[in-house]
Amino acid sequence: xxxxxxxxxxxxxxxxxxxxxxxxxxxxxxxxxxxxxxxxxxxxxxxxxxxxxxxxxxxxxxxxxxxxxxxxxxxxxxxxxxxxxxxxxxxxxxxxxxxxxxxxxxxxxxxxxxxxxxxxxxxxxxxxxxxxxxxxxxxxxxxxxxxxxxxxxxxxxxxxxxxxxxxxxxxxxxxxxxxxxxxxxxxxxxxxxxxxxxxxxxxxxxxxxxxxxxxxxxxxxxxxxxxxxxxxxxxxxxxxxxxxxxxxxxxxxxxxxxxxxxxxxxxxxxxxxxxxxxxxxxxxxxxxxxxxxxxxxxxxxxxxxxxxxxxxxxxxxxxxxxxxxxxxxxxxxxxxxxxxxxxxxxxxxxxxxxxxxxxxxxxxxxxxxxxxxxxxxxxxxxxxxxxxxxxxxxxxxxxxxxxxxxxxxxxxxxxxxxxxxxxxxxxxxxxxxx
Length: 434
What we know:
The chain is α+β, with helices and mostly antiparallel strands. The chain has helices at 2-20, 22-34, 38-51, 56-84, 88-99, 105-115, 425-433, and strands spanning 119-123, 132-136, 142-146, 152-157, 163-168, 175-180, 186-188, 195-202, 208-215, 236-241, 248-249, 257-262, 268-273, 281-286, 293-294, 302-307, 313-320, 323-330, 336-338, 346-351, 357-362, 369-374, 381-382, 390-395, 401-409, 411-422.
């Protein structure tokens, strides 16, 4: 009798293990589909089919989702072709048709990024409380300037998400500032009239800033796009404490140094330099300046390295047939893998915190915009298409906030994109109607 009860108990447990979860899984899938989360819904139905290949409801729902995703992909491709051909009325009609009913979250974001911003964007007020301010230079000269009409650029978020480091031309040369994102407390960290300081980046522990210093060039802001190894430059990389003290050079070497990037453990810095030729290559060095290693050796410039959070790969850009393309290489060196291949140039890649995606700048159709793609180079999607250019993306450690520089407000300013606030269907429909 006991053996029979025991066998019955085991059978019931197995039935619950392989069968009881089908109903809830399908219900979750249907709810996700109703919310436009088609990929997640498809995963639920696929999981139900793995447990029970004969589950007719799961197979039916999965077929519906795949058909909708295929239709959306084709519809978006048609709308995008119209858009790029400047046949905007046809494109908008196609997009409105796509957004009717219950579109997937993916297609909403694709249409939003193509026609504006895919997520909510706000300008960060980095200027002082007064439009016009006065200050003394190191030589004692009184200088009147306006922060409101000065360029701010090169943003970087601190690891704890509380501070923003950036470069500003409010003193008529590039200096590095730090601002508390909540209280807007502003600190000036560098005070060198003869030099431009820019490209600040926080160490993973938040205690150190690496930055670039270069002799001031005619009271003009240095461009925030890729440097060239064949152009004379005095740029060098320095380190300093986050209060601006203990400024010191990273490494002594010939040639220019630029675009520093800390490794995830904070022990190394990758950067670009033309030490050995008129072309930029990627180097890695210990933060104490020892152990310098040249990582790339290609014809043409290689620049703007960015570590994957795993520490195993470094993304960078490489010049290919008069364009710049995004590539990755092992942090130990070796073969290079190209992730982009187009007639357009792409710049300034950064990894998302999960190492699964790369955000970068593209000049597709002659307009500098922000894009995102999977880490293998697939599934490219536009994040911004707003008036003005967009440069220098920097992500918070949790991946929820992205800061970047843009002149969409006439002067170069710093903006924050909130990945927790995607553009909603109703907002997008209103945008397309207007």
